[in-house]
Design goal:
Structural class: alpha+beta
CATH architecture of the domain at 28-99: 3-Layer(aba) Sandwich
Order of helices and strands: HEEEEHE
Oligomer: single chain
Number of strands: 5
Distance between the termini: 27 Å
Organism: Azospirillum oryzae
Radius of gyration: 13 Å
CATH class of the domain at 28-99: Alpha Beta
Protein name: DUF1491 family protein
Helix content: 25-40%
Number of helices: 2
Largest sheet: 5 strands, mixed
Shape: globular
Keywords: Plasmid
Pfam families: DUF1491 (PF07372)
Length: about 110
């Protein structure tokens, strides 16, 4: 049995925690409320962005974030193009924009 929180609650909890620390997060697009995958659009506030995609290990339990747009930050147009391609593939995706000069994602799990 899968005992993970529904996506909408998981995202809301992280937004509230980040807000308490003065970090702005915005849900840009709501996906499936129960099991939608999350894409993070990290706005470094210097006109560069990083896109991270929620991924799980083969065992389905351990969460990590894959670098959708590569190791280096990209212009917003490139980040948006990547997200648009993912939405065509999976319309149940959530997109959350995180504003953080240091490029932190503020969600559980390492970036790989």
């Amino acid at each position: 049995m899968d005992d993970r929180l529904p996506t909408h609650l998981w995202v809301s909890a992280h937004i509230r925690a980040a807000d308490a620390q003065g970090v702005a997060m915005t849900v840009v697009r709501k996906g499936d409320p129960s099991r939608g995958t999350v894409i993070l659009k990290i706005n470094r506030l210097d006109r560069t962005f990083t896109v991270l995609v929620q991924t799980r290990e083969a065992d389905g339990e351990r969460l990590f974030w894959a670098r959708g747009t590569g190791a280096d930050p990209v212009p917003e147009a490139d980040a948006d193009a990547y997200i648009a391609r993912q939405l065509r593939y999976d319309p149940d995706v959530w997109v959350v924009e995180v504003e953080d000069r240091q490029g932190r994602h503020w969600f559980d799990g390492p970036v790989r």
